[in-house]
Design a protein that fits this description.
With 107 residues, this protein is mostly beta strands. It has strands at 5-10, 21-30, 41-48, 50-53, 57-59, 71-79, 86-93, 99-106.
Length: 107
């Protein structure tokens, strides 16, 4: 597709303890509410106050007729030892090259 992407974060307001870890999922769909096009990439481009533990990118496979549901990209943020909050910068790039940026605030 040639449309951009939209996303919701679940939980909506991830929180983390000092030096702790928290998980969140970015639920991505195209602007028409459909499953993102096969070949779409969801990737963490930067973090503030911590690091991503585990996978930091996902490739969307063909939905093969899946119902119109979002694609879930799950990430784990580990706060720095002196941080109890942070930000995760995420980019969604469609096969046609349209890039959408999101910032996940973690408190």
């Amino acid at each position: 597709g040639t449309s951009g992407l939209s996303a919701e974060v679940s939980p909506a307001a991830p929180s983390v303890a000092l030096g702790g870890s928290t998980g969140f999922t970015v639920l991505v769909e195209d602007l028409n509410g459909n499953y993102p096009a096969a070949g779409t990439v969801i990737v963490v481009t930067d973090t503030v106050g911590g690091t991503i533990v585990g996978p930091d990118s996902y490739d969307v496979a063909d939905s093969c007729g899946a119902p119109p549901v979002p694609f879930g990209a799950s990430f784990t943020f580990k706060a720095d030892d002196d941080a109890a909050s942070g930000q995760v910068y995420i980019s969604g790039i469609t096969p046609s090259g349209i890039e959408t940026l999101w910032v996940v605030n973690i408190d």
